[in-house]
Amino acid sequence: MTDADLWGLLSTRRRTHGSDPLLTYISGDERMELSAISTENGAAKVAGALADEFLLGPRARIAVHLPWHWQRSLWIGGIAAIGGECEPFGDPSSADLVVCTSLDAEALAASASCDVVVVSLHPFGLTVPGSVPDGCIDASVVVRMQPDGFAARGCFSTAVPDVGATAERTVVVCSDARNAESWVWALPAPLVTGGSIIMCTDENAAQSIAEQERASRIVVL
After folding, report:
1. CB 22 within 8 A of CB 198
2. Which of 64, 87, 108, 154 has its CA 20 to 30 A from that of 57?
3. What H or E segment, with its residue span, contains residue 45?
C-alpha cells in the first residue's frame, strides 16, 4: 500500500512526459488516447465542477458508478484533486454526490439525497443523448465549461494498493466494472509507477491490442 498525492503525480507527469500516452481506451472500433496533458486537463475540469459548482471539498463522499472507461479515470483524478473520497459504486443515500451513466441514473436518483451527475460515454465527451432523468444533471454541462487547470487547495493523499503495476505499457482487460483492482488500475497505479495503460474489456482482443499499441504486458482482472 502506498499513500500518494494523485493530483501531484499527474501534474508531475504532465510536466515531464506531457505528450506521452497515459490512458488509452479501446472498445471495438473506438479508440481514445489521453496523454498526461489531456488527462490532467480533463481531471481539472472535473475538479473545478466538484469544487465550484457542487461546493465539495476534502472528505466529500462521491459515489462513482462508472464502467471501465476513460471517464472513470478522469473522475478519480478530479476527486483526488479536491481531497474527496471516491466510493466505487457507493451508496447513493449517504453520498455527497453521485456520478453515473444514463443506464442507472433513474434508479440511483430515486435513492439519492444529493445531486446526481450523468456522464456521457461518447468518445469526445459530448452531452448525454436525449435528456437526463428529472433531478439529474448532465455532466458535460457543468464540466466542459470549467478551466483546463486546477489549483488544488491542499496536498491530499490517496491509499493506492499494490496491484502489480510497473513502468511498462500494459493492456488491462476488465469485464467486471466492480472489480476492486480495476479502480486502482484506472489511474492511481500507472501514476505511482510511471506506467501507462490500455483499457479494454475483450480478453480475446488483448493480444492483438498489445501488438498494435506496443504494450509489453497484459493483465486480466
Report:
1. no
2. 108
3. helix 36-48
Question: Which CATH number, 3.90.76.10, 3.30.250.10, 3.40.50.2000, 3.40.50.12780, labels domain 2-220?
Answer: 3.40.50.12780
First to last CA, the chain: 19
Give the C-alpha separation, 17 to 25, whole Å: 19
Per-residue pLDDT of 91-139, as tens digits, reads 999 999 999 999 999 999 999 999 999 999 887 666 666 678 888 999 9
Residues lower than pLDDT 70 in the chain: 124-130
**Residue 215: all three cell numbers together:** 504494450
Query: What order of strands is seen across the sheet that includes strand 61-65?
Result: 85-88, 61-65, 97-100, 115-118, 136-138
CA distance linking residue 135 with residue 21, whole number of Å: 37
pTM of the model: 0.96
Query: In this structure, what C-alpha cell is assigned to residue 25?
Result: 481506451
Query: Where are the chain's structural domains?
Result: 2-220
**pLDDT score for 212:** 96
Residue closest to 195 by CA, chosen among 27, 36, 33: 36
